[in-house]
Design a protein that fits this description.
Blueprint (H helix, E strand, L loop, with lengths): L18 E8 L2 E6 L20 E7 L6 E6 L5 E4 L22 H11 L7 H4 L14 E2 L9 E3 L2 E5 L10 E5 L8 E5 L6 E8 L7 E8 L5 H9 L7 H10 L3 H4 L14 H13 L3 H13 L7 H12 L4 H13 L7 H18 L1
Antiparallel strand pairs: 1-2, 3-4, 4-5, 6-10, 7-8, 8-9, 10-11, 11-12
């Protein structure tokens, strides 16, 4: 089942392509229209057995001036035309109840039924597309729900499994329960607090022009137990491992997913932020963060290449006894990366690696 406005890719609810019966209960009028598949996540909808059906039509035309607009209807009956979706949720002036002289919301509803049934697919290419490759960490983008894991209530929040293109540490977000099926949700990494995520939605009720609702949630939560621990102590800092996961979301996760190309050029990559997260985690003894800093300084990702510094990070990380930094350290000794070539030391480390691998097989 898709999550209403936060439409998962490949959903079969009727909004992925083909015909969908939309409209709302004003008189006996209903409209049917074609909604093409949208790849950038701008489309959210699911029909429900409520007084009103709620949906977002990204392909609407203003019934007054004919301009391309987004039409949104809430389950409470509120209806708004937006020039753009996402903060600050700019309403189209022709149909803004607070600015439209002499037009009631009922008049606007009648205009919608009579004139907005014609969709304009060319709008999809005329408007800039939002994609993982052109949206930076601090820019707003729509929340896209993944279909593999169910949306579930956890405490006073709802767990939303998000699409892998969001590159979030745990592949999920925990939204306030009051937002569940409330409206389209946009999100971004908080520019002022590392690791936090800002959320924005619009609340529209009958006879209302709509208002923005915002919230902040931790972006480092990966499991329900982690969420419960945060809910019990919301002022607690993220653990070193959680902070490392946030740094990964700004960097190497873009390399690990298929089709990434030159992953360092993706707008979602911020190597400065990644290093900041890794350093915070490394100071608290996180071996993964130490190893990641070693890779950054060996390969020169966002910094001047510094083999000696990379060797130091690998050496400190290898004290954990984990295989990944041990392999890096053995390679450094064998190839003289940041240290003098020492084949005997390389052999001893490789022997230890073989013993660990044999014990684990």
């Amino acid at each position: 089942m898709c999550n209403a406005y936060n439409h998962r890719p490949g959903c079969d609810c009727g909004w992925g392509g083909g015909y969908h019966s939309g409209g709302y209960a004003v008189g006996s009028g209903r409209t049917s229209y074609i909604v093409p598949r949208i790849a950038d996540g701008r489309l959210w909808s699911q029909p429900r057995s409520l007084t009103y059906e709620f949906f977002t039509n990204p392909n609407a035309s203003c019934p007054v001036c004919g301009a391309p607009v987004y039409f949104y209807q809430s389950s409470q009956g509120g209806r708004v035309f937006f020039d753009e979706l996402g903060p600050p949720w700019p309403k189209h002036p022709c149909t803004d109840n607070s600015r439209a002289s002499g037009r009631s919301s009922t008049d606007l509803a009648s205009i919608w039924i009579s004139k907005v049934g014609i969709l304009r697919p060319e709008i999809l290419t005329a408007r800039p597309a939002i994609s993982p490759e052109n949206v930076g960490p601090h820019e707003w983008r729509p929340l896209i729900i993944e279909g593999g894991e169910p949306t579930e209530t956890v405490g006073n929040h709802v767990r939303f499994p998000v699409d892998s293109r969001m590159r979030l540490p745990g592949g999920r977000l925990y939204l306030p329960y009051s937002w569940y099926l409330s409206g389209p949700v946009y999100w971004r990494w908080d520019p002022s607090r590392v690791g936090w995520i800002q959320l924005s939605t619009v609340e529209i009720r009958a006879q209302s022009t709509g208002k923005e609702a915002t919230a902040s949630v931790p972006g480092w939560l990966r499991t329900d137990p982690e969420f419960e621990a945060w809910r019990t102590c919301p002022e607690a800092d993220p653990s070193p491992e959680q902070m490392n996961a946030v740094g990964w979301a700004f960097s190497f996760v873009w390399k690990s997913l298929p089709g990434s190309g030159d992953w360092t050029q993706s707008a979602g990559v911020d190597l400065w932020l990644a290093r900041r997260c890794f350093r915070i985690a490394a100071k608290r003894g996180c071996w993964q963060a130490l190893n990641n800093l070693g890779v950054i300084y060996e390969t020169g990702l966002g910094v001047d290449s510094n083999p000696r510094r990379a060797f130091q990070y690998y050496n400190n990380s290898a004290n954990s006894g984990e295989l990944i930094p041990l392999k890096h350290l053995a390679r450094c000794y064998r190839e003289g990366i940041g240290c003098a070539v020492d084949l005997a030391m390389a052999h001893r480390i490789e022997t230890k690696i073989a013993e660990i691998e044999a014990a684990g097989s």
